[in-house]
Amino acid sequence: MFDEKRLQEIQECKEKWEKETVAKSLERISERGGFSTSSDIAVARVYTPLDVAEMDYLRDLSFPGEYPFTRGVYPTMYRARFWTMRQYAGFGTAEQTNQRFKYLL
Questions:
Q1: What predicted TM-score, i.e. pTM, was given to this entire model?
Q2: Is the pLDDT of residue 89 over 80?
Q3: Considering only CA atoms, which of 94, 102, 83 is closest in space to residue 38?
């Protein structure tokens, strides 16, 4: 999805950023402990095209209203509908939630 030369340039700039900018900042103020989502998935300090270099846009992301629905089930989403609030059912990973629901049933 990305030009190999451009990815290499991004990698070099990221390493420079970590060694110079981030390191200087951490000398003054240390970071809090690990960061993770409510599903206990680690959250990186920064994401770049390097993290999705092998991604197939149409297979893995696609467009709103189309499989795999990563951008929502409606093609226009909140451009046509008001924001809605949904109840969050589950915890941890999808597998853990599925296991818990099966246990409760």
A1: 0.64
A2: no
A3: 94
